[in-house]
Amino acid sequence: MKALKSFVSAAAICAAGAVSAAELEVTHWWTSGGEAAAVAEFAKAFDATEHTWVDGAIAGSGGVARPIIISRIIGGEPMGATQLNHGRQAEELVEAGLMLDLTDIAEAEGWRDIVNPVRLLDACTLDGRVYCVPVNIHSPQWLWLSHEAFAKAGVDVPSDWFEFVDAAPKLKEVGVVPLAMGQQAWQTELAFNAIMVAVGGTELYLDVLSNKNADTAASAEMTKVFEAYDAARRLSEGSNVNDWNQATNLVITGQAGGQIHGDWAQGEFQVAEQVAGEDYTCLPGLGVNEVIATGGDAFYFPLNDDPDIEEAQREMASLLISKEVQVAFNLKKGSLPIRGDIDLSAANDCMKKGLKILADGNVLPDSVNTLSADTRNQIESLMTEFWNDKSVTVEAVQAAYVDIMASAD
Ligand code: GAL
């Protein structure tokens, strides 16, 4: 009887002229082990509908993928869906009217009541209209520490950034690189902002990155931040890798003591079957100032003139914010879910730390939400130059930073 009923209902749907199945090409830059495991959860869920996920992974992280994605959309060769960081990266695409308006779905499904913190949805909203579905909170300010490396050096695992810096000579004595760092420019900018919020504090971080206050950028407090950053760059000698996940692998294998990096590093530890609290330690806010900057990833849907594609885009938007998909994806990604009404009992030690900080409201905007892509690119270039050229002084890099902030938008 059940088979007959399901046959009849399926026939009824077809008869009603339901939109036919579509293939969506999805571009993203999740190509490391942990990232691939996470995005596979999205693909699996979408393939369980009548539609098909055509994976368009672009290797090389955001700095490489974003220009490719943006030029395709502007050039009239849009993909069906794409990952970007929510915030100002897609601002020009949305203003050009190239992106699907998701407001009716967001209102019908109550996204403003679901998304937590709601600033994530604000980062998808322009002139009151919603153009992306946030899929995670990824926070950059974590220090990842290898238990193996510190055991090798005969030193306790540090409980904060300052203890880490003090332990560095012992790590070097046993041939361990104290601080792993990849060569992509955004990684050195990430480390700078993390040290700013840890060493300079929340108020300083907000005044510089949200208020774009050049006077504060020139202050004595910021000089202390640049001095700490100077110390950090001297700890990465020997970290001869390019991609962020290669740097994470140095920590996983005990070749490096630690890495300042986002929560997505956790996906790599999970793929390596390492256990938080046993094989590695994660310190949010570098163990000094436990805050989370609520940057994150979101999915955008370039306008397509095919109604089947648009229907599939709308279905994908709903799917990615659904409870079960949020749990499956974020547990593999190492990021935090964008909704507070789900069961994360399977969360590990690090995710639990992040969830508590979120629940306590210790959240900050990420520079991806407060600075234009152009301003961020200038800062990334400056920080990479400073990190790699030890002849550049603290005074020089701070003066150049002040100039950038003076014209930041
Ligand atoms: C984030 C992404 C991370 C990592 C990072 C580096 O947007 O969620 O997994 O790829 O960018 O580009």
UniProtKB/TrEMBL annotation:
It holds the Pfam family SBP_bac_1. The keyword Glycoprotein does not apply. It is found in: Periplasm. Keywords: Signal, Sugar transport, Transport. Residues 1-21 form the signal peptide. One of its GO terms (cellular component) is periplasmic space. Belongs to the bacterial solute-binding protein 1 family. Part of a binding-protein-dependent transport system for a sugar. This is Probable sugar-binding periplasmic protein. It comes from Candidatus Rhodobacter oscarellae.
